[in-house]
Amino acid sequence: MPAVRHTVRRRTLFALAALCAMPSLSFAADKYPSKPIRMVVAFAAGGANDTIARILAKELQQSMGQSVVVENRGGAGGLIGSDMVAKATPDGYTLLLGSAGAQTIMPALTRKMPYDPRTGLAPVTLVAEAANVLMVRTGLPFNNVKELLAGAKQKPGAYTYGSSGNGTTLHVSGALMEKLGGIDLLHIPYKGNGPAMNDLYAGNVDMVFGSVPVAMAALKTGKAKILAVTTKKRIPSLPNVPTMAEAGVPGYDFSSWYGLFTTGGTDPAIIEQLARETAKALAKPDVVAALAQQGVEPESSTPAAFRARINDELMRWERDIKTMKIAAE
């Protein structure tokens, strides 16, 4: 972990330096913030978005001198909470702790988006990168991915997997396993990773693709079996857990990210200020440690770089989602 933290800290400080070099575009940011800030999480409490949002909100509250209140508005794969932020007053007082699924995958799946995914939300900064984890209920007779694939091939459509919602990265993780593994599973969408895990623990769903923080909590309680991580390489927080490719699904490689957004049309100076404050927060050793304990790697960016990444991913998913067994409804 020391080498990982050093790399993360160096990247974050580099992004912070770039942000500090930007000229202020107006005087609006000089008075910002002058009242409490709301940070929306578009999923139920207990998932990765919620955990990361609360860590970040605490730091921003201390550095900006105003309350930063986290509000969970789950549903529709993250679109309900995202739409709320997109339609808020563009003054920087309504933020979104968003993620790749809701912000770049759902637009490719949804026939009619409630807001324009390229202009409705203003990207502020990348916050963290993360793997997803395949977990199965303890009563399921599979102890590794190869056994799971063999069992699923014998009973097509008999086994279920839960996710934090249609079109989320956790849904895509499962759809990708179906495609590359040559199996047929039944997808059960929830309003967040937390509710999906509760049903996994209760035995109501066979497997869940969850966030690393949730998987680590499950590992401590012994309520689920962890079979693999979705990234190309193993992750430091779960060093003994194989990748999906190692475990029996060649070519599997998928990761997620989390980022901060505000309402489209917000003063660029306010966006820059939020990006700078977030970069400073992510560079703090205690924040790096807190996020590392949750299995995610903090990484910030300039608003421009983050916007470019989102535009690239929107184009990617508009093209690639057609080849996968996945739909928003």
Main sheet specs = 10 strands, mixed
Q: What's the β-strand tally?
A: 10
The share of residues in helices is 40-55%
Write the element-wise H/E pattern from the N-terminal end onward: HEHEHEHEHEHEHEHEHEHHEH
Mean pLDDT over the residues: 88
Could you tell me the CATH topology label of the largest domain. Answer: D-Maltodextrin-Binding Protein, domain 2
Helix-strand blueprint:
Elements: H1 2-20, E1 37-41, H2 48-64, E2 68-72, H3 79-86, E3 94-99, H4 100-109, E4 121-137, H5 145-154, E5 160-163, H6 169-181, E6 186-189, H7 193-202, E7 207-211, H8 212-221, E8 224-229, H9 244-247, E9 255-263, H10 268-282, H11 285-293, E10 296-298, H12 303-320
Helix pairs in contact: 1-10, 2-10, 4-12
Question: Briefly, what is this?
Answer:
The chain has helices spanning 2-20, 48-64, 79-86, 100-109, 145-154, 169-181, 193-202, 212-221, 244-247, 268-282, 285-293, 303-320; strands at 37-41, 68-72, 94-99, 121-137, 160-163, 186-189, 207-211, 224-229, 255-263, 296-298. It is an alpha/beta fold.
In words, what does this structure look like?
The structure is a single chain. The chain is α/β, with parallel strands linked by helices and 329 residues long. It has 2 domains: 2-130 and 256-323, Bordetella uptake gene, domain 1 (D-Maltodextrin-Binding Protein, domain 2), CATH 3.40.190; 131-247, Periplasmic binding protein-like II (D-Maltodextrin-Binding Protein, domain 2, 3-Layer(aba) Sandwich). The chain is 43% helix and 19% strand. The protein has 12 helices and 10 strands. Strands 1, 2, 3, 4, 5, 6, 7, 8, 9 and 10 form a 10-stranded mixed sheet that branches. Strand 5, helix 6 and strand 6 form a beta-alpha-beta unit. Helix 1 (2-20) packs antiparallel against helix 10. The longest helix has 19 residues, at 2-20. The protein is globular. The termini are far apart. Residues 1-5 and 22-27 have low confidence and may be disordered.
